[in-house]
Amino acid sequence: MRKKELALLLSAWMLLTTGCSQGTPAGASSLPAENSQVASGSEMAGVADVVEEGMVPISGDSLEDGTYPITVDSSSSMFQAVQCELTVQDGEMTAEMTMGGTGYLWIFPGTGEEAATAEEADWIPYAEQADGSHSFTVPVEALDQGLPCAAFSRKKEKWYDRTLLFRADSLPLEAWKADAVATPDSLGLTDGNYWVDVALEGGSGRAVVDSPARLTVRDGQAEAELLWSSGNYDYMKVDGVQYDAELVEGRSRFVIPVACFDRALQVQANTTAMSTPHEIDYTLRFDSNSLKEAEG
Phi then psi for 268, rounded to 5 degrees? Predict the structure, then answer.
């Protein structure tokens, strides 16, 4: 379908969905400007930068074939996935995003301007799930990289530019190929005690943990002793397993497993400092380059 025919088709669809009784005159030579189908910057409120400092794009070659749950961040609060599954096959990645609403009819892996001039066959339609929710299946060039995505609004009848980021740190450990993850075994760590730098992110940003942290390796398995700046955390969860706190001089101390290094590991910590206890999401990153043997 050529560009002129596509514009006519889109104009006709708009007229039908808005209940207009008059169609496009036959043989009309005057078409709307291309950017009239694309939302302007002033129409896109609350655009967020989803790419974090220090992120490095990760290709599908680092992952085992399979389907895994993954978190996807969007630059717009109006375009959010409530669930997402990443499928990897021979290094190629696609993601099925289940959306939090039904306000978009198509998405396009590119900019709004590119979507407005693309062939209709290149637009990705939604799939309606059994519960009425909409999902889109999109190609994923790389994880931890901002990917342009245009979404066509049912209500506004325009393409809106979005940026999506599929988070590598949300993948389960089994998704990674053995040579893509630094583990005690791949690093050649023998049983013993070590010091390792650890970075904590998440929450309000006020809580910290002591760094370096003490790391113990036994039978090829690593455990880290985390000493928090506060004594208000009574348990942590790592991969769904709960670890209870020990109070040390008024501070919460935990011993948790360290499955791998140099990647953000998702954990939860339950705080009792507020009116009702609740779990807070954090990430921990253990730096393999900082490992040093510890005495005793």
Answer: -125, 145
